[in-house]
Amino acid sequence: MDGPDDAAVWKLDDERALVATTDFFTPVVDTPYEYGAIAAANSLSDIYAMGGTPFLALNIAALPPDLPVEIASEILRGGAEKCKEAGVVVAGGHTVQDKEPKFGLVALGFVHPQKMLTKGAVRAGDVLVLTKPLGFGVTTTALKRDLVDEADVNEVIGWMSRLNKTGGQLANEFNLRAATDITGFGLLGHGWEMAKASGVGFHLYFERMPFISCARKYAEQWTFPGGSSDNRLFYGTHVNFASGISEMEQMLLFDAQTSGGLLLAVPPEKLAEFERRAQELAQPVWAIGEAVAETGIQVAA
Ligand code: CO
Ligand code: CO
Fold first, then answer.
1. Residue 135 is part of which domain span?
2. What is the total count of domains within the chain?
3. Separation of CA 252 and ligand 2 centre (Å)
4. Final residue belonging to a domain, choices 76, 93, 111
5. Alpha-carbon gap, residue 107 to 127, rounded angstroms
6. Do 97 and 181 share a domain, yes or no?
7. C-alpha 74 to ligand 2 mean position (Å)
8. 222-234: string of b/e by CB count within 10 Å (b at 16+)?
9. Beta strands in 12-82 (DSSP E)
10. Which CATH number is 95's domain given?
11. Which pLDDT tens digit goes with each residue over 108-153?
């Protein structure tokens, strides 16, 4: 409990540790199947962020009593098919009644105790690599306000429902030590957690940041979710922005993500081979900065 991390890990023997996590949330998109798939990908993400391989999950659902049964079953089907893609068995679960739907998983995985990834193992000099672009929060909130184009919805759903499985596989193959996943606290919140736990600082470069294609359009309409403003309030004191990075651009880095990518610390001597292997696995990766000996987060233009 001293070092908060993405999931609980319980060592079973010298070869295996159990990884346990849970996550659930209200709908982020209007289509029930995709909502289920995104919630499942998000729940499994914390297992990958610990370097683990998920194997078993239980559904957690809270559903309004008047919700049509077809919609409820589509949510569960989206979750179940995403679990199948991950090689995870859904072995039941629990449902209660609630006014607003909520869905997610309890997920269990295994990790080799020597292969575990933590937030606190970043070393100065490590390159910081992101495995999904940013801009999900500002886009899904625009969707809630009926401001979005169909193509943008499909783009953001494609990313949010993507498993962090290959990112985890890369971390394992390259014997990485430090990772987290980018979710509600946004890039800078989760980045700060990692930097603080590791006793290092981060130098990030705005021009290298990946955003989904519609992120700026909705950021200009300021459709950021409440969580993004909270993140700026809470983590802003630890972040120094170069002049020339607008307030809107700063907010995009604080934007609360649902089912975001992994943030991996890659030793610089491994980076070229890591990037080559990522391409082979069709896993996008973006090197967005590096860890440094001083503390705090600096964002250069
Ligand atoms: Co996490
Ligand atoms: Co979580």
1. 119-300
2. 2
3. 20
4. 111
5. 29
6. no
7. 23
8. ebbbebbebbbee
9. 17-25, 53-63
10. 3.30.1330.10
11. 999 999 999 999 999 999 999 999 999 999 999 999 999 999 999 9
